[in-house]
Amino acid sequence: xxxKPTDQLRQLLERHPCWMLTELAKALGYAxxxxxxxxxxxxxxxxYSDNGKWYTSxxxxxxxxxxLWRYKAIGFSRHGSLIATIRSLLDKSSTGLxxxxxxxxxxxxxxxxxxxMYQGGRLDRIRVGRAFRYLSPQSWINRRQRxxxxxxxxTAAAAPLSAQVAVxxxxxxxxxxxxxxxxxxxxxxARRQLTVSTESINSFFEQHGLKKVRI
Length: 215
Description:
three-stranded antiparallel β-sheet, alpha+beta, single chain, 11 helices, Arc Repressor Mutant, subunit A, elongated, 215 residues
């Protein structure tokens, strides 16, 4: 009885963990569309690196706590694509991650895809010092990350507002007086690409005897 192509495929993947689709098609003697079907039947992962051109069997990776596995220079993720993997790493981080930190975890440059994800609303970011720190777009995780970042920088959190930022704070407060300090800070971040701490906003209102906007 002829050997099933899925059995042949399993043997190839056991012999060598990572293959490109063209190589698998050549080794099996089938068209690429058929090999894709066989891969789906046995279960597989595609690499998040190298534009997803590498395939491995579902049973091959031993993922680390971040859901990552590497074979030589090829990166695989339990979460699938590079974009999905970055989202997962950001969701798990207590204070977000910089491009350098993400690149270090993934062994893969991330600057281009991070800019694209931010422009598409797939993640959030704030400037911390000279670099951006990337945050989860999920509101409850995002707020927790922002609070944790402020706690790490107590001196900067109480810095006085510049005249321009004070105007923006007042505009937000007049337009939507129900907003809390953290919400005003989030609006300014989204519209002006500028990080303002909730403590600085609270101090501004207290200093001028306007009102207190506590979290």
